[in-house]
């Protein structure tokens, strides 16, 4: 640590226990003509040659003030760090919070505050309160003195009026301004303190928060937004049970990207009055900026998180702590409920339903114990989920508590990562949705893609046939529990001969064997030749099915994609124009859970 002698203005380097216990430290807004370490050292024999520069005048006045207060040593970030050394810069930034914390006094110099006394209106206009680095410079020191543009003292952090105004400007709780242990502040609360601040370089938004979270990590200028993601990963490893790390975005009491129940077929067939905004883009669990945490300052870890990760009773199942997997996170969360979400590809603008869940965050509002935050998690790939900006805010009943609510919720493990978008190639087939309209019986069911023939199924329900194959398709088999049903839906291409434009083919085939592998003998099938066509399947022992195919022409001449929408519904008879279910030979669920499960 380098310090300036306030009497001689010479810089001396100290290590470990040799660092003086009494020194003043400067907090300021950088401006023009700041004095670097090299400038200061090159002019050490006649340092006053720099006196015409604003940066030197600021340091000189700072040292004078420290000397008047009987302090022999002073530290300034502009000239006490050799910023040409990346190693030294990294060490300094990782140590800076401690340096401010150990200082005898921090002088805050406000170059744009011109009043001689405390004036709340003028104080709110000062740039210093809205910069990233000054957050730790306000919180860390035990003693903070404020000076105006003429180096006149006008307030201290410990003064009740001044402290209340600083709290109102910055959003920092009074207790933490006055020295409360930062460990007692949640991740979301500390992120919210930085949510309205700016830095000159994108990476510094993350680096300026290292001390606030007691995190050390290497600095990699040039990494851009990756720095903030790395910071959150380190925070997650240090505080794995604090789910307020994931409490960012826009809280809503109704998630508008969820498909309205019973309107799925209309949604996929162009009923704009039912179609909500598409959740684009889809994010991972981590935020992209502290700005995302505005509005979540009151969220802190729930006591239920301790029981979730630490077994208390013999029959408790301990959850595994979140784990980093590439750019994603594997995490176990309680499930609020299953849902289907609306998604729209950007180009071409094709609608799709995607399955997902509302997962409960183990954090709660300190001002409202009934509040529960749920993350909508939307499937985008094989084993992968992603989240939109929206967070569902729901409330427990008056008689319920979060800790009583949690043990009864099922839990699942997810890999949550930003969506890796598939490119829709000409000739592709897009599965827009599997719509369930079954009402009778009981027992969950799911569709498994279990058979491929010269076709590739991508992670987003896009079937990409191989270019030179005459027939290419995939098969989906209904699975009820651990047992496959006796039939499969086949989707694919046919009619590729003689240079004709390929046509879409769909049909129903029987399945053979316990693994559900499909045969090639069609019970029913159809070649779709129009821009909009439908195959209706009506066989006893099977549910009724409508397989609708629509062709979308692409901007390039002759290129197209096909979309397929499947509805599975009960067998019904009409009696006086009233539809009533007919008992089926198959036991279908009350609301068939038709999910795309990738093998």
TrEMBL record:
Residue stretches making up the Heterokaryon incompatibility domain: 23-118
InterPro entries named among the record's database cross-references: DUF8212 (IPR058525), HET (IPR010730)
Pfam families the UniProt entry points to: DUF8212 (PF26640), HET (PF06985)
Recorded superkingdom: Eukaryota
Domain annotation DUF8212: ranges: 227-374
Protein's name according to its UniProt entry: Heterokaryon incompatibility domain-containing protein
Record PANTHER family: HET DOMAIN-CONTAINING PROTEIN
Annotated source species: Daldinia eschscholtzii
